[in-house]
């Protein structure tokens, strides 16, 4: 008699409910940690089958039939669960917070003495929390502030460090708070307000992980106290006229001089000086290595000047530890792109494109084309490149498509490949119907509605399928079909730099003639430009839901968006005096600097990139800075 077989039970898993995320976990606690620590970039969720080998799911938002109300209830419960995980409160008393946390304890005990906070009431009621410095005319305003305002741990730590002229170890603070998730702000609640020398401080500190979602309108303060302790006198010593390009021998920050090759600065910042000029940078997402390409000359790179000379590529890890250095004789590396087979295509100064093994520097293949000025790599290792005269598509080292001759010499190529889920961007409104003065190629003329619909709609429909863009030395932006058989002029301006952001599906262009940077939006609805920054930018990177840009003048900006304006914040500014580099990050320090004519090539921001909440800034003069950045 045949033995009866019993079915093996299917093992269940906790799968991440967010669309496109395929992570699964054996226990619910691991899933909770994943949801809290991962930025999924979407609010769309699915009800997924818990069986590991099954990819079945239900998209509940499409089922508004009464027969499927049970799925809607599941989705509602799922969303509530996710919200409860991501918005969990952590309530700690002062004693619990400072226990075994020496750094945090020292800071809090500087304004919470014997369990109480002393309010100095002269003309205003001032908040005593370090880093806040807000003051109110009425006791009611102060009371509301204490009850509702969520203070920043980062600002508290920064102010305490500045006042005491001491360096705070950011990594040590992270370790002290490692047992909690995303504690970055706190409230003071139930504080007794009495007109006496001491006021009780009996309630716990309330922690929440979404500090940056606080509504500032709910906390209307009169003024913010100026930080009087900040000494900016050292800045004036470096107010010298612009001199010829130079490498950096000393870095000055907050008056302290650093003359070593690498050092740790205050507030969790690090720097590395390679003592060579940097031409380009590439971050490999797979290996997590940073490739820094240096050159031997201090003269700015000239695009159509093809020369072979000794150069180096430095390989760093994300802790700015030097892994290796590889020497080349092809000239400096202008651009690096990773190929599908784990090697890298590198365009060198001699105008040749080569496939290089960056483990040992060996050349695996050389593309049979001279005088290449720029290139991009498609998904299947198909090369898109230009010699300035035409665009070429090359596969297996053979040209498969060639464009017509360009109206003038090309200087860059950009691929328009938006992400699957595009983040909403601020510039989404059409031009009004009453504004019938259209701008095509910066030539203004009045057209009627019929002409507009016929001409503009035709161009927009075409451009929606064109994903290859290039810029010319005359500032024109051209778009091409995938097979390079058609060419459309998108914009004729003074464009010298074209950057594309797949996350937002927009371009950022630099207009060096007018010293402005603009956002260019190209889609089925409109082709429009909007002011982005009153300065020329050389590089940009998407950091969280903002754009961080590096300028020709040595300034790094962070841009925040909403639906009607851009808010630009200066993160850091570099100023060179001879071989000394001044790093500034406060508005009072900027005010001491005297304006200069022209740009200093030594402080040009070559590239900016973000990894693991750190911003990496690369200067032309060989300085690499690693800086914590807020989410």
TrEMBL record:
The region annotated as signal peptide is none
InterPro entries from the UniProt entry: Quinoprotein_ADH-like_sf, Zf-C2H2_aberr, Znf_C2H2_type
Q: Which domain of life is it from?
A: Eukaryota
Q: Where is the C2H2-type domain?
A: 16-40
List, alphabetically, the Pfam families matched: zf-C2H2_aberr
TM annotation in the entry: none
Q: Which SUPFAM superfamilies match?
A: Quinoprotein alcohol dehydrogenase-like
Q: What is the protein named?
A: C2H2-type domain-containing protein
